[in-house]
Write a structure and sequence with these properties.
The chain has 191 residues and is α/β, with parallel strands linked by helices. 59% of the residues lie in helices and 13% in strands. Strands 1, 2, 3, 4, 5 and 6 form a 6-stranded parallel beta sheet that branches.
Amino acid sequence: MIVVIFGPPGSGKGTQAALVAKRIGVPHVATGDILRAETAKGTPLGREVEPIMRAGHLVPDDLVVRVIESRLAEPDAAAGALLDGFPRTIPQAVALDEMLERNRRRVEVVVPLNVPEDVLAERVRRRAPEGRPDDTPEAFVKRMHVYRTETAPVLDYYRRKGTCIAEVDGVGDVDTVTERIADALKAGQAS
């Protein structure tokens, strides 16, 4: 099962993706982590993306799709994967779907984490001391704008395709939200 965990900055995607992936027995595929690991290992892909990332630019969609395709080809992903941080735009979703189709796979469930914006802002504010450079109030406003204009439409793209959308209330303690996601995935598999 290929699952996409989806939500605005501060919604808990990374935390939940790691927990849920372990729980359902598939790898947590976080594109940023993979790109940083490839760069650290000095692989051909790492050497290709390092100057792009060092310059602070976004890695082109075709490269990210190649990274995901390579990761999904690994034995531990035979049963599926939980994607975190990708796709973030409709062109990325289209590219992902084309790659998955070539490999006789598809996104089966998209799990949007619904969290009110005031709660998101508070979570990001609390995270800021951890040293995340994109967790300033100013950066949060910009990231929310990008989310609304570029990322949120991905959800409508998957709705139009008929992909199972398993909306989850992302407010509550970590364990409660994890249970909600697990229940939503079970319901998504049953439908």
